[in-house]
Amino acid sequence: MPRRPWIVRKILRMPITESGDQYSVWVGLIYIFNLIVGTGALTLPAAFARAGWGLSTISLVFLAFMSFMNATYVIETMACANAVLKWKRLQFIKRNSTQENDSDDEVTASQHSYGDLEDPLVCGDSIPSRYYSLDKRIELGEMANLFLNKTGRTMFYCTLCVYLYGDLSIYSTAVAKSLMDVICSTVPSNMTNTTDWDILPCFSSPSSSTYTRFDCYRVALLTFFGAIGPFVFFNVQKTKYLQLFTTGMRWLAFAIMISMAIHLLIVYGPQGKPPAFDFTGIPTLFGACVYSFMCHHSLPALISPIRGKNRLGLHLSLDYILISIFYLLLAFTGAFAFASLNDLYTLNFVPTDNENILLKIVEYFLALFPVFTLSTSFPIIAITLRNNLQSLFLDTSRLESYNFILRKLLFPVVAVIPPFLLTYFIEDISILIKFTGSYAGTGIQYLMPTFLVLSARRHCTNLLGLGVVNNYKSPFSNGAWAIFVLLWSFMCIILVSVNMFERNS
């Protein structure tokens, strides 16, 4: 049998990090910030005013904490998945080297070549673990394949696909409608039936009366998919400059809204008088908050390219603290500055004096806010859906063995075409919004991370032993926290059901 110890050394030296450009931890936090802070933040001021400023503040901080806890669960599970794959890789090398080498010297040489990897039996707390890492991007779907049984995997993929497809449909509709509202003439104030908006002419001139608002909506939708859709064929790193540009745009938009609200408070005093506590507004507040802290489905793709993940948990907590302060500032100023609030906060800033050029610019800029925010979130979610569909139907450990169509073309198309077709023919997807942002959102943000981390801990303990230390272990590793999350998830489902019942009644 030929001597091939060099193959063992080559396998050991193969890079395990995800291919593609890496970025600093601060750029990664910008990605996460962009994913969390979207149009959901614009529904917070109205919900904040209904539930009362005291109850809303407590609820928002609590929901931010719950979201952060489950984000740490996702990170811990990803590190566990990396450890399992490294362990399997090491066992494969050991078996091959033992079978292929027929002399003691060759066995000794081979063992020396993989000796830099840990032996689970001798690794202790004093030895930093190299099994656990976040270098290789492992999507939630791959984690489910590793740690959940058949029933759990089925429930996971159903929930994830419903949520991600729903999100892409919601985002594309919001962008297309925002562009349509900017391009077309204002809807007449006497138009009370909102179901007839699509048959109205887009422009007031008689020559263009045949071109309806719905036609403009479709053109805007095609333009959006043509400009943003191709990003789904690449990795998240390729959206870096798009992320940085739109971060500036969204910060400017929020700064304008907060500054104008503060100006109104200084000049006219508090016009809104929200109560301190109004428990009847809890269901609406919950629906707004849980959607405003969602990022868990895309965390693996965002954190794997980060350089220097040693203090990732601390940096992520700072991101959540910043977002919470940002939300509270936006909600507080809006709740007290306006006597009545629209469900979509930007509608409160439509200027009454159209002759004022500055206010006109602000009007258009805020009207385009969903375009700025969702244009960055859309490719991240589409890439996440593509990667999870690949892990569902393909063996990701040998992805390069598949043909070009399967690897590069099929799943990106499958990820973006269904949302496009749905929103091209149907612009009213309110039912999908309710279901996606409530039941599926609760499953993705709370239930799935908890079930995954519990299964991952048990699996890694049985595989590696208690001596191998996971440096990315969640600070909420006590089993009581997991039970608390599960109980809270069921409470969330009840609150969501009550909210939907109240809105339909």
From TrEMBL:
Superkingdom, according to UniProt? Eukaryota
Name all Amino acid transporter transmembrane domain ranges.
Answer: 23-77, 136-458
- Would the keyword Transmembrane helix be found if you checked this record's keyword annotation? yes
Coiled coil region boundaries: none
Keywords tagged on the record: Glycoprotein, Membrane, Transmembrane, Transmembrane helix
Gene Ontology annotations for the cellular component aspect, listed alphabetically: membrane
- Give a Pfam family name: Aa_trans
- Give compartment(s): Membrane
**Membrane topology annotation:** Multi-pass membrane protein
Q: Where are the transmembrane segments?
A: 23-48, 60-85, 154-172, 217-236, 248-268, 280-299, 320-341, 361-385, 405-426, 480-501
InterPro entries of this UniProt entry? AA_transpt_TM
The UniProt family comment states: Belongs to the TMEM104 family.
The protein here is known as: Amino acid transporter transmembrane domain-containing protein
